[in-house]
Amino acid sequence: MIIIVLQLLICAFLLILSSHYASKFGTQIAREKNWSEGFVGVLFLAFATSMPEVFASISVVPECFSIAKIDLGFANAIGSLIINLMILAVLDIFISNGQTFTAAKKENIITSTYTIAILFVIVTSYFIRMKWPSFAVLFNVGIESFLIIGLYIMGMGKLVSKRHDHQNIDQESVSYRISPSILFFAFLFIVFALSFWLGNISNAMIEKTKINESFIGALFMAFVTSLPELTVSLAALRLNSPEMSIGNILGSNFFDCCIVPLMDMVYRPAAIIGRLNAITLIVSGGALLLTIIVVLSLLRERKVHKPRFILPSVVILIIGTLSYWLMYRAG
Fold it and tell me: In which residue ranges of the chain is pLDDT below 50?
């Protein structure tokens, strides 16, 4: 166990370091391309920081690595949404002084709205498959997976069309001997490699604890795989880029929802949502409720600009904590 903990600390340190530089060069790309930093946060950083969730969730699907823990994988994927929003709330309260939602742009509303739609599909599909497990299944992949992929493509299409909608703040240009794009993708690869290692370490720790896998997946494993979101968003705030910070968090949540169809495709026995336990419904419901709160906060902050507005963040932390308490009690 000591060796596992030591590996976790080393991996976390390297992950924090590489994520910081990914954020730094991502900001530089946004300035060079005249893209909004929110778009870069949603497209590049969100994809990079979601890699731990992707590989950690797929690695516990039976047909993939012979580990029969689909509830663990699903709880990690969707539980990461709750963790990410709680991270956003903490950063909003203690780092940006309640101004995170004020800095949000159109991209953030788009990603959050489509995330709500996808989570609604997941929750609704769970109830449908409780009664009709084989309803609308193609090659053992549920129709809900195709709907989720379709919603994701639609959302990304809108984001790409708005990538130049906001101008970046003029800042002194920094020159590098190597292109910032090359450096960005180089650190992206490092994040990817460390994330896969981090997922394996998390699985080893979960095997030793023998605790309810849905609760561990949604809390412990989701927190570990959300370290890149935390480090990148914190680094973006320190670089005076709150738009990229919130774009990374909300964009990661949007991308994390698409882990469910990926799991469905590699889980061959049946549509995966029909095989999940009831605790995963608490995970999905909690993520759905918190995302609705975020959208309402984004819409309000676009109309009413207050110097400090931390109420949404406080509510997110309370409901997130309550969700984990319900998961623990249900297990």
Answer: 66-67, 167-172, 301, 304, 307
In the chain the first and final C-alpha atoms are separated, in Å, by 24
Contact of 75 with 215, CB cutoff 8 Å = yes
Chain segment 65-103, per-residue pLDDT in tens: 544 578 888 998 999 999 999 999 998 888 877 777 776
pTM for the full predicted model:
0.83
Domain borders along the chain are 2-163+176-330
Kindly report the CATH number that applies to the domain delimited by 2-163+176-330: 1.20.1420.30
How far are the Cα atoms of 30, 65, 107, 109 from residue 302, in angstroms, in the given order?
23, 46, 13, 10
* Helix locations, the chain, DSSP H: 2-33, 37-40, 46-49, 51-58, 62-65, 70-94, 106-131, 143-161, 180-209, 213-216, 222-225, 227-238, 242-256, 259-266, 279-301, 311-330
pLDDT digits (tens, 9 = 90+) for 98-111: 777 776 677 788 89
Token look-up 């516990």 returns 60
